[in-house]
Amino acid sequence: MRERRMTGVGGIRLSYAVWGPPEAPAMVLLHATGECADDWGAVAPALAGDGAGSGAAAAGPWRVYAPDLRGHGRSDRPGAYSLELMRDDLLAFLDALGLREVVLVGHSLGGVVGYLFAQDHPERVRALVLEDVPVPRPRKPVAPVRPEGELDFDWDMVLAVRAQIDTPDPAWAGRLGRIGAPALLLAGGPASHVPQDGIREMARVLPDAELADVPAGHLIHAAEPEEFVRLVRDFLERRVRGGGRP
Prior knowledge:
Structural class: alpha/beta
Order of helices and strands: EEEHEHEHEHHEHEHH
Helix content: 25-40%
Low-confidence stretches: 52-58, 242-246
Number of strands: 8
Strand order of the largest sheet: 1-2-4-3-5-6-7-8
CATH superfamily: Alpha/Beta hydrolase fold, catalytic domain
Number of helices: 8
Shape: globular
Strand content: 15-25%
Mean pLDDT: 93
Largest sheet: 8 strands, mixed
Number of domains: 1
Distance between the termini: 19 Å
């Protein structure tokens, strides 16, 4: 059963959802740009071990946490945005909740935050799952178009993080080798706007990575929730074996 909570991190408040038994090992889900914790509703219950939401076999039990990143959902919109700030928010979030070591799952923007965090805090990451994530290499900027109406996120945040993803810090690519945790990279195939060759390149560069193709487009966990849960479950059973402490 999902609960919604709020916690303070570094002078701002982050809203987050949580599923699963409190004693289970911890998993943190990081959403894409413009989304929030609710985006994981099709897979989080199954990852938490109750099998609800997607009809998939349970992959847990895990204690599953899904924060709304700064500028998103019910979290604060402080006006200051960067991928580094989101990375630092994640560290403060784990500390606030007393989570020493977690399985980290990130989709798109959340995947970038995830690999930046794993570079700087490898001791806090048991395993890393990156879903259709843009790699840290320059790409041709395309001006984002603001949707009409009221938004569930801060548009200034979109402009800030898109600029960093388009022109990433060169050091990010050089630090991928610091990621010692086993990693699973999920690639959405030709229907995704994310360059798939980049995902394959990252799978070769990371010290301990596996690659799985799921030709469902960018939103793998939404389009193919049962397959997403199956792949994550199998990976964690082989590489982490579901043990340990949150």
